Amino acid sequence: MALSLMLRNGTKLRGIAGLQKCTFNVQKTQNFTQFLNQDNYKTLSLVNKCKTQFINVAQQSKRNMSADHGKLWTLEKIVSLALLGIVPATFLFCNPLLDDLFALATVIHFHWGLEACVIDYIRPIIVGPVLPKIALLLLYVISATTLGGLLYFNHTQIGIGRAFRQFWCISE
Amino acid sequence: MALLLRLTGNQLLRHQSKTLCKFVRPVTLKPSQYVPPVQMGHDERNMKLGRPQSPHLTIYKPQLTAMLSISHRATGIVLAGYAVMFSLAAVWLECPIEYYIEQIRCAELGPACIFGIKFTLAFPLLYHFWNGIRHLLWDTGRFLTIKEVYLTGWTMLAVTIASAIVLSGY
Ligand code: HEM
Q: Where does the chain bind a ubiquinone (chain A) (predicted)?
C-alpha cells in the first residue's frame, strides 16, 4: 500500500515539473510555425513533429490524474503476470509463503483495479469534487484492512490455500 | 532543448526573411482587456452540447467484444468482493474455519447445491484468469486484429465454461 502511494505521488510530482517545461516548449514551437510557408517542407515537418509531440505530452499531463502512468502500468502488468502463477500455485501446493504472496499480490492488484473503476464511474463532473476523494480514501481503507485480514488468517489459521482445498472436499 | 529551438528558429528567420516581405501589410494594434479562454473539460463540453455518453450504450447492439470487456471488470469486482468478505469473516468469526466447513458438510445440501456454490466461486475466478491472459497478450501487442479478438474471445469463453464446470463438479 505504501509502495503504491509512493509511486502515485512520485509520478504526480514529476508530471507537474514536466508540465511547465512542456507548455513553455509548445509556445516556442508555435511561434516558429508562424514563419513557415510551403517552400520549407523539411523544416516544416520537423517542427511539426516536435510541436505535436510536445502538445501531446502537455495534454496528457492535463487530462490524467497522474501525469505519467507509464512506470505504474508496467508494475501493474508485472503483478497481473505474477498472479497468473501465484493463484493456481496457492490452491495446488498449500504453502504458507504462497498464501502470503497470494494475499499481497491479490490486494495490490484489486486495489489498482478498483481505483480505475472509481476514477471511471465516480467522476467529479457528475458527483462533485468531494465524493471521488472520499471514495478513493475509502478504497485505501478497504484494501489495507483486507490485506490485514488475509494475512491474519494465514498466520492464525490454516492459510488460504488449505482453506479452499478443505472446502472443495466438502462432498466427500 | 531551448538552445536547439533557438538555433533552428534563427535559421528559419534568416531563410525566410525574403519570403516574409510578401506578407507585409499595415496593421493597427489596439490594447484590450485580457479575456481568459473558457476552460472546459472533455466531459463538460459534451454535456453542454447535449452529446450522448460514449460508447452510446442504448443504441449499440451488444457485441461479444464489449460484453467480454465489461465481464472482465464485473468478475474483477466480484472477486474483490469475495476477498473482502473472506477477510472480514476471518477477523469477525469466532471459530476456526474448519468448524464452518464442517457445518456446511453436516447441512447435507445435496450435490446440485454444492455444485452451485462452487460454481459461484470458481466461475468468476476462472473467467478473470483466462481472460486476464488475453488482456496481457494484448498488452504485448499480440492478437489485436478484430478477427483474432473474436477468435480468442470465443476460445476463452469455451475454456472458461469447461474448466468452471469441471472444477465445480470436482
Ligand atoms: C488469476 C490471475 C489474475 C490475472 C491474470 C488478472 C489479470 C487482470 C488484468 C490484466 C486486468 C486489467 C484489465 C484491463 O487492462 O482493463 C485485471 C483487472 C482487474 N482485476 Fe484481475 N487478474 C487476476 C486475478 C484477480 C483477482 C484474484 C482479483 C480480485 C480479488 C482481481 C481483480 C481485478 C479487478 C478489480 C480489476 C479491475 C477491472 C477493470 O479495471 O476493468 N483480479 N486483472
A: 121
Is the pTM higher than 0.95? The answer reads no
Could you give the CA distance from residue A121 to residue A106 in angstroms, rounded to a whole number?
Answer: 22
Residue A54 has pLDDT above 60, yes or no: no
Q: Residue A152, annotated ligand binder?
A: no
> Within a 10 A sphere around the Cβ of A110, how many other Cβ atoms?
24
- Establish, for the pair of chains A and B, how many residue pairs have beta carbons separated by less than 8 Å: 107
DSSP-assigned states of every residue in A34-47: TT--TT-HHHHHHH
Q: Quote the CA–CA distance of B3 and B19 in Å, as a whole number.
A: 25
Q: Which of A142, A145, A157 sits opposite B97 (nearest CB)?
A: A157
DSSP string of B106-143, one letter each residue: HT---HHHHHHHHHHHHHHHHHHHHHHHHHHHHHTT-S
Nearest CA distance, B9 vs chain A (angstrom): 6
A84 has a chain B CB within 8 A of its CB: yes
Q: Which domain holds residue A126?
A: 69-168
Residue pair B131/B153 in contact by the 8 Å Cβ criterion: no
pLDDT: which is higher, A60 or B71: B71
A157 and A90 part of one domain: yes
Grid coordinates 475466478 are at which residue?
B125
Pick A110's closest partner by Cβ from B11, B42, B76. Answer: B76
Which domains, from first to last, does chain B contain?
64-78+110-169 (1.20.1300.10)
Name the residue of B70, B71, B77, B79 to mutate for ligand 1: max ligand atoms within 8 A of Cβ.
Answer: B79
Task: List, run by run, the mean pLDDT of 10-residue segments along chain B (170 residues).
Answer: 63 58 81 88 85 84 95 98 98 96 93 96 98 98 98 98 96
